[in-house]
Structure formats: structure tokens, C-alpha cells
Amino acid sequence: MKDNITILQLPENRFNEICGMETVNSSIRRKNLADGCEICVIADFDGIIIGEINIMFMNDVIPAAVIPNKRAYLYGYHVKEELRGFGVGRLLLWEAIRICVMRGYSEQTIAAEKGNDGIKLLYEKAGFMPFLENCTENIDGREIAFDLYIRTSIRGKINE
Questions:
Q1: Is the distance from CB of 149 to CB of 127 less than 8 angstroms?
Q2: More confident position, 136 or 153
Q3: Dihedrals φ, ψ of 143, to 5°?
């Protein structure tokens, strides 16, 4: 299966296909992507988007998550449920980290919702460590509780 997966930056003409948009205002998101404030990385399997991760270079909601030209925030990390466990998420995460490092961002942060121990394990294997605990964010009238993890360029290897 991995041979048929392509990891790439989202082309503008495929914006409406991305998986995790249910919690994001699409007009703001489209503007941020066009302005370069964000990048969306997708996993494409035979022409179908099966996963995504987003890189945010500016963030007012969680100030500790982003430091311009140093720390980027990874969010909207999603793999279609029926395709989890095949390494797609790992490929997306490492590509996002690679892009950050190539752009000079030596640190990355990412959120893990409370109770999602599987994702925390994946983050830790990629070199992320707990950073801020018990954060909350209101998304569409729903309060989400999460912990923020951080990865510095000295933790984990890009090609693990």
C-alpha cells in the first residue's frame, strides 16, 4: 500500500477535498494557505486524499505554540479511520517536520486530545515531549481539552 501513497503539499485546486476541515473555517483557512501563513500536507492514495497535517507559522489562539522563524504549530492531523495503522500518519508527520526544518523552524508543537494515548505514543516516537498540559480551545461551541507537545531539532531523527 505504501508504494501507492504520495505525500505532497496540497495543490490549491484540491482544497475542497481535504479530510479534516470539519473544525476549521474554510475561508480563513484558504486565505492562510494562499498567504503562506499555513501549509497543508496531504497523503494521496491513487488520487484520493486519505490524510492531512497542517503547519501553522502564526497563531494567536495558543501563543506558546508558535514563535516566528523558530517554532511552528502542527494541527488538523487526520488519517481516514479505515486506513489507520498502515504508517500513513507517520509519513505525514515526518514530512511536516521535514518542511519545518527546511524552512528554518527548529521546533514544532502539536496537540494531543485528552485520552488519545495512541497519538501521544506516535508523537513521542517522533521526538515530541509534553510541553503544556491541560489546554482548552473552543471550536464551534465545543470545548476541546488537550496537551501540547514540543519537538526540538535535537529530538528524534527525520528519517526514523
A1: no
A2: 136
A3: -85, 125
Handedness of CA 91, 152, 39, 142 (dihedral sign): positive
**131-141 pLDDT per residue, tens:** 999 988 877 78
Give the residue from 38, 120, 55 showing the smallest Cα distance to 92.
55
Identify the residue whose cell numbers are 489546554: 135
User: How far is the C-alpha of 84 from the C-alpha of 66, rounded, in Å?
Assistant: 28
One-letter amino acid at 47 equals: G
pTM of the model: 0.86
Helix (H) or strand (E) holding 130: strand 129-139
Pairwise CA distance, residues 71 & 68, whole Å: 6
The pair phi, psi for residue 139, each rounded to 5°, is -120, 115
Give alpha helix (H) positions in the chain: 26-35, 88-102, 117-125
Residue with cell 475561508: 27
Pick the closest to residue 94 from 110, 117, 118, 116 (CA basis): 110
